[in-house]
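Amino acid chain:
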Amino acid sequence: MSFASSGGSGSLLDSAAEYQPATWRLIFHGAQDGATNMAIDEAILSAVIEGSSPPTLRFYAWSPPCLSLGRNQPLAEVDLAACRAHGVDVVRRPTGGRAILHTDELTYSVTLLQSDPRATGDVVDSYRRLSEGLMAGLLSLGVGAAQVTGQHNAGLPPTPVCFEMPSKYEIAVGGQKLVGSAQWRARGGVLQHGSLPLHGDLARIVDYLQFDDDRRPAQRHLVRARALTLAEALGRVLTFDEAAQAMTEGFARALRLNLVQGHLTEREQSHAAELRRERYGAESWTADS
């Protein structure tokens, strides 16, 4: 199965015109644990850097629910007892940013070389370019989304919650953050992955972070006021498959891609298993900050 770019209108098409058509691999994965998901993303990145795999767009889910930390975020910000009591995994991402509770969501990852015109320039510029795929998918669903053009969290005290405030070129609806993304560059390769919450209460994350009990209600209110789910933006619930289909078509259109559905290579599977065992599933990695 393949998804090719097609006609449309507006600024996203104008941006796509600067790209030569390219063929990327498309992978749909079901729900897996957090350590496995992060290991697969890094294994794909390594394979793309080595030239043994093509640029890849991957969609996946999480089971059990997982709290992921940014690469340099202190583990001390996590309420580990609450996570254990409710069966919530904890994993450290290879990318930066703040904590995300992965449940009831569509997660995407984009892996390509930094020399690709879709990723050239600095991190912010490539972030904007790649996020246009998400924008196109959301617009096709009728979501009035926009990329945040300013640093909306400037001057505010730091928070451990990723979805509390949008950063530059993240995607928001009416000023409320809808997609949380992060990027990692290594050895000439780029990995950008992020979370599109489909439904549910985004304030659940507060229960798994270290807040004083008297502060939790206000913190929940802040998350709900500053972020929203796709269901809240649309007024209806989309399934994982429906959202993945829309995002796939959006990436194909906005980035001028022919997306060919494929699978992990044996080498990627082996490397992912090693990374899961030695890094993402290891307490030493999760504790490191």
Observations:
- The radius of gyration is 18 Å.
- The chain has a mean pLDDT of 91.
- The chain has one domain: 2-287.
